[in-house]
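Hi F.,

I've been meaning to write this up properly since the lab meeting, where we talked about keeping a consistent format for the predictions we share between groups. The idea is simple: the sequence comes first, exactly as it goes in, then the structure tokens exactly as they come out, then a line or two of notes. No screenshots and no reformatting. I'm using this chain as the first example so we have something concrete to point to.
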Amino acid sequence: MRFYVYVMILLLAACQTPHGPIASRVELIDAELQHLMRKADVKGMAIAIIDKGVLVHVAAFGHRNIEHDLPLLTNTIMYGASLTKAAFSYMVLQLVDEALFDLDKPLIEYLPNPIKSYEDYADIADDPRINVLTARHALTHSTGFANFRWLEDDQTLRFHFPPGERYAYSGEGFYLLQLALEEGLGLNVKAEMQKRVFDRFEMRNTSMQWRPDFEENLADGYAKDGTFEPHDERSGVSAAGSMDTTIQDQGRMWAGIMRGDGLSERARTDLVRGQLGIVSAHQFPTLAEDKDSRTGKIGLSAGLGVVTFGEGKDKVWFKGGHNPWTGNMVVCREATQQCVVMLANSVRAELIYPEVAKLILGETGMPWWWEYNQ
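Output, unedited:
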């Protein structure tokens, strides 16, 4: 016991200098992370650490399947959830760089047919607000839609406010943007993501659609109460969240995003620039109108596919991904080009993410109260 306490004192002392060389303290980080996992009963969790834009550490702990005593490995296929949205946004910015797409052109102007001819959007065809909805609105979660139409009382898509008026997280906006790319530009989103993101960052075990070879090393999910949920085989391509991936691949991707590989300097700057101030007290429920003055004090804002706060050397940006059995989070310091990428097939991992992020990056001011409705 004394030895453990001594090790923890050394670890905490090391972590008081978050801008120091992370690579020199990864063993201590891994030890404390496993301790936190045991305390919170986290079934499986993996991390990737980026320092100065370089992937310096990847590790996985716990199980991908408890029942069969299968370990979680760094090449285990895990559900990317809404981290997909950030990867998709990165692809869209490449199209913008090449003048193939305009973030501020109404999406209906890309569609070859009237919006009412698309069955999924017939319900909003006569609402004039559809005429001004753009890709920027979709990427900043300010479309005015609910997160998903099936969350509405009647499961019907509708506008709750004019596009651009405020932040309200919505997967529906990404669906419409995907439609505009596929119908209007004739792009295959799966192929574009593969070429422009996954191949670029050598993500060999990542796809927007289920691959049969994933089944050999797959992470199943565990709810907050420990309930088991088998990994879903996502047959459709969804910009809002169909990506299957590994921690190794996510480490490569976020290192590349941090460096801005494949983007112009302007596009990379826009990615994490505050595009729309966030005033909501919490991210979820998405349409709640409660406000919190702390968001303004830290400059909490929607970037393009990520959320950002702070300025200059204090700028931090992040992206989460969640379902009842999955908890993913990426937190990045812009000035030092440092990130921690956290994937878990046990949603209980979200209970320890604030401690893990602080352990690796130091105190960032990350608004966990907003992200996790604390």
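Notes:
The chain has one domain: 2-101+185-371.
The first strand starts at residue 44 and ends at 51.

If this format works for you, I'll send the rest the same way.

G.
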